[in-house]
Amino acid sequence: MDTTATTPGTPTTWRLRVRLDDRPGALARVTTRLAARDCNVLSLSVLPVPGGVVDEIVVHTPPGVQPAQLIDEIRAEGGRCVGITRADLRHLVDRTTAALRAAGAALRDPSATAESVRSLLGADSVTVADPGAGSAPDEGGHRAVLTLGDGTALVARRGWAPFTEVELARVAAFGEVLTAGEVAAATPSAVITGDGAGIVLRGGTPADADAVADLHARCSAQTLFARYHAGLRTLPRRWLHRLLQPPRGTTLLALCGTEVIGMAQLIRTNDPAEAEISVLVEDSWQRRGVGQAMISRLGAIARGAGHQRMIAWCLPSEVGFERAATSSGLPVAVRREDNMLRVALTVGARQQAAAPVSAS
Length: 360
What we know:
The protein is an alpha+beta fold. It folds into three domains: 77 residues, ACT domain (Alpha-Beta Plaits, 2-Layer Sandwich), CATH 3.30.70.260; 86 residues, no CATH class; 158 residues, Gcn5-related N-acetyltransferase (GNAT) (Aminopeptidase, 3-Layer(aba) Sandwich), CATH 3.40.630. It contains ten helices and 15 strands. A hairpin with a 5-residue loop joins strand 11 and strand 12. It is elongated and about 75 Å long. It holds the Pfam family Acetyltransf_1. One of its GO terms (molecular function) is acyltransferase activity, transferring groups other than amino-acyl groups. Keywords: Acyltransferase, Transferase.
């Protein structure tokens, strides 16, 4: 268990999953022990699981009370803490309200589907996978798959506690609502630029190779240098597959008619909290809101994947990305590192939900 998960002297709210012996008064005795430590139980719910139930308790602890002490109190009553993580106000909303809000968010904006599933399940991350992902092992109950109507599979993972049957049934019903509304996470979305032009944002596929090559051919040397930080005149064909299907991320295309006019990528880094973002927009489409729209869409994807920040590395002389990032409405922080500008966009995943604390 990570006993540094909270700073001594700071009050904290925790979300615990507890299995107790099937004895009358066991739960009451646990809450009495917590009350003796001046902990305030904010909510309590019972989740049926095979062979019994799991009690979920949201508890506010006073300064100085560590998660290990909470687990000790549970063990003292013969119970077992199967999961503990920081909680926030979302965990105090009743389940029906939370599910309706999640469905509403996904129906309003298909790009928010992954984030809605993450919120509904309290998952660490939700990513888009290839069809057939459901056949993979469930990782001891820490992995769940939701397949949408178009075959898109959303894979949810949660380290702090396994998913229960109730949660899996809840997310399956959520998927039925989305399918009924013909909503999918990867559904193309239409965007109107500031000057009234209509463009479509969608994921890239290998079939877009020629259109992406044409995009690069139409870009100026300055635009290509700002994106790749190298003197690139034409795009090598061997790069196309990796650009369109990056092994550690997502590629988003902006199209006007059949022409690809912009391309953006979100690539996972070694830091789970961060993902690296890059944007390329054809010269004649710059300053028209294309970059802003792609950054906003990738922000929703990053949030659903559990990232907290998107990071871009820009040349000091180039202000296009910073301008588009600011226009997207996401909080932006810029600092200089190694003769480059590090532009960080906060996407707001896991608000007040720090790294999970493991327990046995």
